[in-house]
Every structure is written in C-alpha cells, then in structure tokens.
Amino acid sequence: MEIEFTNLLVVVAVGFTAPLLLGLAPGLRFPAVVLEIVAGIIVGPAVLGWVEIDEPVRVLSILGLATLLFLAGLEIDYDRLRGRVARLAGGGFVLSFAIAVAVGLLLRATDTVNDALFIAIVLSATSLGVVIPVLKDSGNIETPFGQLVIAAASIADFVTIILLTLFFSEEASSTTATLLLLGAFIVLSVLLGLAIIGAEHLTRLRDALRRLQDTTAQIRIRGAFVLMVGMTALATSLGLELILGSFIAGAVLKLVDRDTMMTHPQLREKLEAVGFGVFIPVFFVATGVAYDLDALGEASTLVQVPIFLAAMLAARGLPALLYRGELGARKTMVAALLQATSLPFIVAATAIGIELGAVEPGTAAAFIAAGLLSVVVFPATALALLGRERQEEVPARAS
C-alpha cells in the first residue's frame, strides 16, 4: 500500500510556521498552540481544504497527544504535594468539582449538554503546561504563590484524567469493571516503578546508561519513550484510555528518577525538544484540521462558547477564594485565572466524549473554542495583574 505524506507535510509546515510568526511579533503574547489550532482549521476541510486527516497524520497526532500527557506527568512536583499547600490545593479541587457538577447538572437540565458528569470532569481540569510557563516568565515559579498554583493544577490534571478513565472508558462494561482495571493498572505501574529503581542501582547498568546517554544511542530518551509507549499500550490493552497511560508514565518517571546522580541534567530538555519539536505540534494542528467549524457556525452552538468559558471560570476560579488568606486579593485573582485555563485536556476529553456519545460534535466544538479563549485571555490577564503588582511594589520599597 502506497502511503502519501502530502497531508503530513502541510501539517508539519503549519507547526513550524505558527511559533515562528509569534516569534517575529513578540508583542502578541499568547501560546503558539492557539495559532496552531486556528491555522489547522484554516488549512483543513472547513476553510481552504489543503489537508485532511490520513493515516500518517493520525498516527503522529496520537503520538503527539501521548507525548503531551507524558510531559504533563513529568510536571508533577511531588515535594509540593504535601503539608498546607496540598491541603489547600486538594480542598480547592473538591470545591471545584462540586461546582462543576452543579454547573453540569444545570446545563443538562437546560438540554445544553448530554452528560452532566462528563462536563463536570472537563470543567475541573487545568492546563498545567500553560500555567508553568506563565509562572516562570513572571518569576513566581519558586514562590509560595507559584507552588500553590502548581500543586492545584497538578491535582486537577491527575484527578480529572483518573475520573475520565473511570467513568468514560470505551471498553469498560461498568464502573466497577473499570475500577478493577484501574486498580490493576496502578499496581502494575508501582511494580514497574520499583523495578526501574532497582535496575538503576545496578552499577554496570548505571555506568552503561551514563556512557550512552550523550552518544547517538541517546539511551535515556529511548528508555523514556519505551516507558511512555509501554504504559500507553498497557492502559489501552486493559480497556483504559490512552491519556491515562501516557500521563502515568511521565508521573512514574518523575517519581522514580529523582536522584541527581541518576538523572541526566539535560534529560528533561531533550524530551521536551522531541515532544514539542516533533510530535505535539502535529496533534494541535490536526485538532484544528478535524475541527467542526460548521457546527460552531450555528447560533445554538455559538452561544455555548461564552457559557462554557464562564463555567470554566466558575468551576476552577471560584475555589481560588480559599487561598485569599494565604495569597492576598490580587494573587488570588491571578490563581483563579490560571486555574481556569484549560485546552489540551478539553481537546482530548471531547474526542473521547464524541466517540462515546457523551457530548455532541457541536458542543465539543464550542468547548474547544472556550478553551482557546481561556488560553488567550486568562494567562495574559494574569500576567498583567502580576506586572501591575511589581510596579506597585517598587515605589513601596523605595519609600
């Protein structure tokens, strides 16, 4: 069978051009992922019709999603998920999910959505991959404020993926069956983690890894991808979701490879180079190519966009009020905006939801549009508030 790469060429060209255009216009402060999805819509069947989803694009797009969730798992900072920070972040998520369930039931009662629980799970997510760069750029990554926001986003990412897998796995016959499969998967993940810890303490193996890690073998990168693909294959073979396997793979790697003697100082940078340089842009551009723009053009669907955006802000933003005593009014507002920012999980979850009938294509299109707006508006507003706070602190210190 002859395989053509014309569609893939257009997709990777768009993935290259989008961040380059943003680099040429530094005044435009929004993530490249937004432009990648919008450009995918433009070159796709909905507008220009230059590209469609064929087998090469589909396969690389799936790898892009897996790599994105794998890197998200690597973002979890276990040292921050303890003590008062963990209690505040955990309490915030419980409140967040309660609000999301209430919003989901309200939307279901008005026939806006098909499944209230599915909507609640999607509304409870936060885009950790967007939150961390904002905190880094503003110099808040190591502050108590930054630690609290990252802890809250980490809990939201982890729990929503578990909940989506538990209640909306395609192959599972019941919630009980899914729970058993999920338990088996977690046990196997723990055993795998213990095996990796034991293997890396073997002197000959550790020395071999160090010799090969910077050669053409790039052995640690290969090992990381074996772990990611292996955990993803295990999850899907158990009837669980791909996103769970890849996310847990990243979380396991971060947990078991914490010793600085065992961790290559450039491992993270290399993994991000492969992920964000090759696979992840294909996923986002392909998401735009497959986007149902016609459904969004309907008035009944278009009106859902601001509703979902407000629902995201309510579900994830309001719980940030629990942090007010710890952070103060302004940083609480910033935390609320950052927690309400979500896109990759929305894209992945709505694709699953469409397959299972939990969400209509038009509703999914509106949800993704709301996610795009959240990524454009909320982090930019948060940065503006943080910048204003720094400007006010300078005269105060001078006086």
Keywords:
globular; 0% strand; single chain; 399 residues; 19 helices; mainly alpha
Structure description:
The chain has 399 residues and is an all-alpha fold. 75% of the residues lie in helices and 0% in strands. The protein has 19 helices and no strands. It has helices at residues 6-24, 32-43, 55-74, 83-109, 116-123, 128-137, 144-167, 175-200, 203-212, 219-237, 242-256, 267-289, 293-296, 299-302, 304-317, 324-327, 329-339, 344-356, 361-398. The longest helix has 38 residues, at 361-398. The radius of gyration is 21 Å and the shape is globular.
Contiguous helical run count: 19
What integer value in Å does the Rg equal? 21 Å
Poorly predicted runs of 5 or more residues: none
| Strand percent estimate | under 5%
What sort of overall outline do the alpha carbons produce when their principal axes are compared?
A: globular
Number of separate strands: 0
**Can you give the mean pLDDT?**
81
Order of helices and strands: HHHHHHHHHHHHHHHHHHH
State the gist of this model.
The model has no long low-confidence stretch (mean pLDDT 81). The protein is mainly α.
Topology of helices and strands:
Elements (H helix, E strand, L loop, with lengths): L5 H19 L7 H12 L11 H20 L8 H27 L6 H8 L4 H10 L6 H24 L7 H26 L2 H10 L6 H19 L4 H15 L10 H23 L3 H4 L2 H4 L1 H14 L6 H4 L1 H11 L4 H13 L4 H38 L1
Helix pairs in contact: 1-2, 1-12, 2-12, 3-11, 3-12, 4-5, 4-7, 4-15, 6-7, 7-8, 7-17, 8-11, 10-11, 15-19, 17-19, 18-19
